[in-house]
Each structure stands twice: as structure tokens, then as C-alpha cells.
Amino acid sequence: MYEIVLKDDGTVELMQAKQNAWGATGFKTMYTSVANMPEDLRTKLSALRMLTPPDGYEDIGQRVDDVTFWIYE
After folding, report:
1. pLDDT digit string (tens) for 40-61?
2. Contact yes or no for 27/15 (Cβ under 8 A)
3. For the purposes of burial, counting CB atoms within 10 Å of the CB of 67, is it exposed (0-12), middle (13-18) or buried (19 or more)?
4. 6, 18, 28, 31: which could form a disulfide with 36 (CB 3.0–4.6 Å)?
């Protein structure tokens, strides 16, 4: 699962969380804008941005609030 947070300055914080036998692992990436994100994530984010929180799509993800989105792998 990815968590995307849209920052006030237009940057995007992308965090990936994974669980393994030793606990949680993952990474955090910053993008200068939504346009600089990978196309597949941009497409899913675009669909979720049209929803009212906390709505979501079973196969895409969920809009948590106005700036936070969960995207399923």
C-alpha cells in the first residue's frame, strides 16, 4: 500500500509500507509535483481526488481526507 500526502507547497510525499517477518519496512519519496509522479500512481490519485473523504474504490484505494490518499498495490 502507498500513502500519498499532498503538501501545501505543491510537493507530494509518497510512502510505501510493507510488512515482513521482521516488522514493517518501506520507503519514503518526495516529488516536486503530482506531474512528476509515476503515471500509474497519478492515474489512481486522479480517480481518488474526485471522491469525498472517506470514499474509495475497492481496486484502487481510498481518499482519507483532503490531502491524504491510500493507494492499493
Report:
1. 999 999 999 999 999 999 999 9
2. yes
3. middle
4. 31
Domain regions of the chain by residue span = 2-71
pLDDT, tens only, 9-38:
999 999 987 766 666 667 899 999 999 999
Q: How far apart are CA 45 and CA 42, in angstroms?
A: 5
pTM as predicted:
0.86
End-to-end CA gap in the chain: 5
Q: Is the bond into 53 cis (omega within 30 degrees of 0)? A: no
What CA–CA distance (Å, rounded) separates 33 from 8? 11
